[in-house]
Amino acid sequence: MIALAGSIIALIIVAAILVLLIIFVIGIYNTLIRLRNQVDNAWSQIDVQLKRRHDLIPNLVETAKGYMKHERGTFEAITKARSQAMGAKTVSEASKAEGALGEALSKFMLVVENYPELKANQNFLSVQEELTGTENKISFARQSYNDQVLFFNNKIQMFPSNIIANMFSFTKRDFFEIEVEAEREVPKVSFS
After folding, report:
1. Which of 26, 87, 144, 150 could serve as a FRET partner for 37 with CA atoms 20 to 30 Å apart?
2. Residue ranges of the domains in the chain?
């Protein structure tokens, strides 16, 4: 009788441990799913802003074409960079392509400095202002995305959640990083 009661208690303890283990695995799995979805959501926020940027660029170029008749190479570089950016499939490809697009836009804005009548054009100023606002939103969205990637990558690499992550094939995500070295440099300010 005592042996039977002892084995029942042992079974109850084993069952309780199994239930707790299952609840623990489910909790970690659900956390990983939530973090992965947050990363995906953060990327979609970047994607929305990049789409807006891609849509504004042709308006900027078209406005400038009337004034900048001798800058064909500049327009072609922007068009090519925009096309590559729109065709990027992965975060890594998008980082590289968007960096190249940013570089092409920077060169374009430098050329614009040589055309004072263009800089005074209201349509050009309006599109340029919208593009600047969009660039700021991209920057904030990129920061948010990278924060979510950091949380997610930490979770799938740290014990004990890394065991569950490996069991269910959760993989590291890439950060959205600046690929163009010129963008990493500190701007030079001169008052001479």
Report:
1. 87
2. 45-184
Q: Report the distance separating Cα 110 and Cα 137, nearest Å.
A: 22
Which pLDDT tens digit goes with each residue over 77-134?
999 999 999 999 999 999 999 999 999 998 888 888 888 888 888 888 899 999 999 9
Read off the tokens for 29. 């799995």
Convert the pLDDT of each residue in 170-188 to its tens digit.
999 999 987 655 554 544 4
Q: Which tokens go with 62?
A: 């078209």
Residue with tokens 């804005």: 109
Query: For the whole model, what pTM was predicted?
Result: 0.80
Tens digits of per-residue pLDDT, 145-179?
999 999 999 999 999 999 999 999 999 999 998 76
Whole-angstrom Cα distance, residue 89 to residue 91? 7
Q: In the CATH scheme, what architecture does the domain 45-184 have? A: Up-down Bundle (1.20)
Which token pair is 170? 């959760």
